[in-house]
Specification:
By secondary structure, this protein is α/β, with parallel strands linked by helices. The protein has two domains: 30 residues, no CATH class; 112 residues, 4-Layer Sandwich (Nitrilase/N-carbamoyl-D-aminoacid amidohydrolase), CATH 3.60.110. Helix content is 35%, strand content 18%. A hairpin with a 2-residue loop joins strand 1 and strand 2.
Length: 170
């Protein structure tokens, strides 16, 4: 993804050689401010940020809704828009927040806090989506702990398997 290219000043010559366009965005801070809409706090995710559970969880805890915007045109007519939508549904479920997903060519939808799509506009279809969303508060275990328990469990299983293998007779 080319919105921000690390070490771009070192590779600009190579990029020019291949005649590839390159943006000049700079890296943002680690914690982005919420969007404030009519007193509600919306936790924004741009494009593929919605694919990163811990990134979304960091901003979801003190938000009322999740909000993601994307241009899914580069997926074409593949399963990409559906998978991108499923990732967004999972973030709504993990964080117990309703989600508004707005796309230019992908699936635009309203998702409830259980991860179910309430209403949607299919990919490559022009339209206006109307629906009601509800602000939610509180913290889910995933919002509080993120992927840490799963990572600890995996390491624990690897260690147990190592001990079991060592103690097995040869």
């Amino acid at each position: 993804f080319g919105e921000y290219v690390p070490l771009s000043h070192y590779i600009r010559g190579v990029i020019k050689f291949f005649d590839l366009p390159m943006s000049s965005f700079s890296r943002g801070g680690p914690d982005q401010a919420h969007l404030q809409v009519k007193g509600w706090q919306l936790a924004p995710s741009i494009c593929y940020e919605i694919a990163y559970p811990d990134l979304v969880a960091r901003s979801a805890g003190d938000s009322d809704l999740l909000f993601t915007i994307s241009n899914d045109a580069w997926f074409g007519h593949s399963i990409g828009p559906d998978q991108h939508m499923q990732m967004a549904q999972m973030r709504a479920l993990e964080n117990g927040r309703e989600l508004i997903r707005v796309t230019s060519t992908g699936i635009t939808a309203l998702v409830d806090h259980h991860g179910n799509i309430r209403t949607r506009i299919p990919s490559f279809t022009a339209g206006n989506l109307k629906g009601v969303v509800h602000a939610r508060s509180g913290t889910t275990p995933f919002t509080r702990f993120g992927s840490t328990p799963i990572i600890v469990l995996c390491f624990g299983l690897v260690i147990c398997a190592g001990f079991r293998r060592r103690s097995s007779p040869a």
